[in-house]
Amino acid sequence: xxxxxxxxxxxxxxxxxxxxxxxxxxxxxxxxxxxxxxxxxxxxxxxxxxxxxxxxxxxxxxxxxxxxxxxxxxxxxxxxxxxxxxxxxxxxxxxxxxxxxxxxxxxxxxxxxxxxxxxxxxxxxxxxxxxxxxxxxxxxxxxxxxxxxxxxxxxxxxxxxxxxxxxxxxxxxxxxxxxxxxxxxxxxxxxxxxxxxxxxxxxxxxxxxxxxxxxxxxxxxxxxxxxxxxxxxxxxxxxxxxxxxxxxxxxxxxxxxx
Amino acid sequence: xxxxxxxxxxxxxxxxxxxxxxxxxxxxxxxxxxxxxxxxxxxxxxxxxxxxxxxxxxxxxxxxxxxxxxxxxxxxxxxxxxxxxxxxxxxxxxxxxxxxxxxxxxxxxxxxxxxxxxxxxxxxxxxxxxxxxxxxxxxxxxxxxxxxxxxxxxxxxxxxxxxxxxxxxxxxxxxxxxxxxxxxxxxxxxxxxxxxxxxxxxxxxxxxxxxxxxxxxxxxxxxxxxxxxxxxxxxxxxxxxxxxxxxxxxxxxxxxxxxxxxxxxxxxxxxxxxxxxxxxxxxxxxxxxxxxx
Lengths: 258, 293
Prior knowledge:
The complex is a heterodimer. Chain A is α/β, with parallel strands linked by helices.
């Protein structure tokens, strides 16, 4: 069912934890280059779904098709190799390392030189080091975090840490970027800034983005495509306008008289 | 005065022996953020394997290589059957696993090679000789040279290759390290393998000095103050910590001993470590913990 315009499609994915169904038979497809938002109340299964896509969790049933290749299960390492990068709900940065070093780790899979070459600084190593450094600096410029590039990440305020995490993910030059609540805990100025960076990422690099966000106004302004989950089921899928008009979605969000 | 220097030098050289053990701990701490309780058992296991092979008539270097291979298999097995299941668990879980491992490895050593004390001769004499008016042991100088080479090579490898940065990443956050495509399994195997190699070197030198016996696994306890002073994450720190412990305990024994009673060598390092914990909890070269509240 995947055509070439879909970068990612999930087919009948189910996942349960000790008998509790976190994700119940969900299918949807994400087009190349679009920003797709996953929304839904707490516990709807949004983060679980993201974790299935990059292989932190293994789905019990169903199939993931990414970039023309079908897999029942992914591993985090494998998905990174295939071009999926992500950020986490509760920032997972390397706190004891500088901003630059954090971004450099994002380029881990782009390193071409072997460790023997690195030790003796021969072969591809000298050029490699320069390239990785240059690309990392570009990303740092792009997200405007130059002033803090040599600060230890653990000492930065929350909003900046979120941005550094995005920088590390972008450093991998991913095809698909998964953002788990990139704007959680931010004030409206910071949200607007982060939204701009996400849009810039889509525009500049053509990256396909799947994100989870609670702020509906941000979601509507940012995304091309919205998927709504509730109790592990998909209850809405379409453009922001379509989803806004969907009675089931309204019921899930606002409550309804039964 | 020359007596003072003789004691100091003897202490420094003895300290190097502690450093050798401590380096093994630093490696694993760097890669997983835990104190590897099983390091002492690995020292014992490797020394016992080596000496048993030697006693069965296997030549020195062949025994060394076979033992090294066995340590690598052990590292592989530890990664495959223990660590792999514990990805993304809390450090205390990993620590408990190393505690369990230490008993398994010790038991294994005992089951395979028996519990007798073995003498080990690695062909370096422990006779003192005189240099600049000081009596020094050739064996101590040899141990110091080996430790120096080990530290130089390891520091060089970690600073020149991407392994260094990957190690720090893994120690900080395993989930994030996996997400950027760091091969956690391979990294852990490498680190435990190198720690096994360092354990083997330490085991041979300690075994040659005090005999290969089960108390070897207790040198873990002497490495602890070394690590507290030098810092858990620094290979160079392990050397400096070892030198401080070695020299201060010998000086204390010789110059303080007559006033407050002998045998202070045994507890002095721990008192020193405690003072360090009060003043500088991350050690001289350790990474300071940063936490925004």
